[in-house]
Design a protein that fits this description.
CATH topology of the largest domain: Dehydroquinate synthase-like, alpha domain
Protein name: Iron-containing alcohol dehydrogenase
Largest sheet: 6 strands, parallel
CATH architecture of the largest domain: Up-down Bundle
Keywords: Oxidoreductase
CATH superfamily of the largest domain: Dehydroquinate synthase-like - alpha domain
Organism: Limosilactobacillus albertensis
Helix content: 40-55%
Shape: globular
Pfam families: ADH_Fe_C, Fe-ADH
GO molecular function: alcohol dehydrogenase (NADP+) activity; butanol dehydrogenase (NAD+) activity; metal ion binding; methylglyoxal reductase (NADPH) (acetol producing) activity
Length: 396
């Protein structure tokens, strides 16, 4: 195992009606003049926004609104939020939504804390942040895990670059997590979220050298739990207990609990997908599902023991055979699972058909974003990235 530093300072309020305490917790963390960031008008129509703003008024907290955040959140909206925050002298960011909204709030918080610098420089890794305004969230979709993580992902819509920046400065002060707020999500969003949750753990699971049995057991238990409850929600979307299991798994999957003792994780699938959603604006979870089988079949021989362990302990492969046969059976069962919850397993099923030129562009951009290489199960370089994209483009 490797040495590790586990840091997860976010206070979690989990359960029914917890959103009613939003104002109290904003006050607890010294928010006085806050910017509420959210996406669609769904939270207006269902009364959630009014419920939260009422709780803020009860604590004499001033608030301003920034809406219109979209999936694969855009840099232009971040700049808009920074401009608004400067004018209104914002001192706290509250995100109401999922990962896209929370990531936007984090990026705005970086920009307001260092207004003399361009926040995009962080995402291009030209510098490190020195400060960040406090951020918190009321979660309305279980997926990205941004509510407890150090990460944020933003798309520069001008050049189709989707980039991530990780820094403990942006870890949310608190996260309000009421599974009831996810009961009426469309099935596609629910299952994309479940896919993203599983991938956050799988990225940490498929490593070469140095793992802890306890961490593996936590990771495998989380993966089995999400797999079971994602399938349950596909047929019974109003199941509160299943929603709760998936929501809590989302936070645990990306606060690095499932990576303690490993080498930092693989995360090649995520980086490959960022280029796909940056170019084609597909939903992140669906993009991950479309790429992972090709990535797995490309790298499994280099990390065979982990793929066998995954096949047996997560996917329930019981067939006898060689390690290679068992590993491939586990990958096949993962594809079956994706299909069972309506997720794609290749680009055609995702609804895109990249040209060879586009594949080369995505691979080059991915290589640039990763400093030339990425991965732990197998270290990938430009040519490897091209091959994985081509495999995902051919598997029908």
């Amino acid at each position: 195992m490797h040495n590790f530093d586990f840091y997860s300072p976010t206070e979690v309020l989990f359960g029914k009606e917890t959103q009613k305490d939003t104002g109290k917790y904003v006050k607890k963390y010294n928010g006085h003049n806050i910017l509420i960031v959210y996406g669609s008008d769904r939270i207006v129509k269902n009364g959630l926004l009014e419920e939260i703003t009422s709780s803020l008024k009860n604590e004499n907290i001033t608030y301003h609104l920034l809406n219109g955040i979209v999936p694969n959140p855009q840099l232009g909206k971040v700049y808009e939020g920074i401009d608004l925050g400067k004018r209104e002298k914002i001192d706290f960011l509250l995100a109401i939504g999922g990962g896209s909204v929370i990531d936007t709030a984090k990026a705005i918080a970086y920009g307001l804390a260092e207004p003399e610098n361009d926040v995009w420089e962080l995402f291009e890794h030209q510098r490190k942040a020195k400060a960040c305004l406090p951020v918190a969230s009321v979660l309305t979709i279980a997926a990205a895990g941004s509510e407890t993580s150090m990460g944020a992902v933003i798309t520069n819509e001008k050049n189709e670059e989707k980039r991530a920046y990780d820094d403990d400065l942006a870890r949310p002060k608190f996260a309000i997590m009421n599974p009831e707020l996810t009961l009426n999500l469309p099935d596609f969003q629910t299952e994309c979220g479940a896919t993203d949750i599983m991938m956050h753990t799988m990225e940490r699971y498929f490593t070469n050298g140095g793992n802890m049995e306890l961490t593996d057991a936590i990771a495998e238990g989380l993966l089995r739990t999400v797999k079971e409850n994602a399938l349950l929600l596909h047929h019974d979307p109003q199941n509160y207990d299943a929603r709760a299991e998936v929501m809590w798994a989302g936070s645990l999957s990306h606060n690095n609990l499932t990576g303690c003792g490993n080498d930092g994780g693989d995360f090649a699938t995520h980086m490959l997908e960022h280029e796909v959603s940056g170019m084609f604006n597909v939903t992140h979870g669906a993009g991950l599902a479309a790429i992972w089988p090709s990535w797995a079949r490309y790298v499994y021989k280099n990390d065979l023991a982990r793929f066998v362990k995954f096949a047996k302990n997560v996917m329930g492969v019981q067939e006898q055979g060689t390690d290679e046969e068992i590993a491939l059976a586990g990958i096949d069962k993962m594809v079956e699972f994706y299909h069972s919850i309506g997720m794609p397993a290749n680009f055609a099923e995702l609804g895109i058909h990249p040209s060879e030129t586009q594949i080369m562009e995505m691979a080059q951009s991915c290589s640039n974003a990763t400093g030339g290489h990425k991965g732990s199960a197998k270290v990938l370089y430009y040519d490897d990235m091209v091959q994985i994209y081509k495999m995902a483009n051919q598997e029908i």
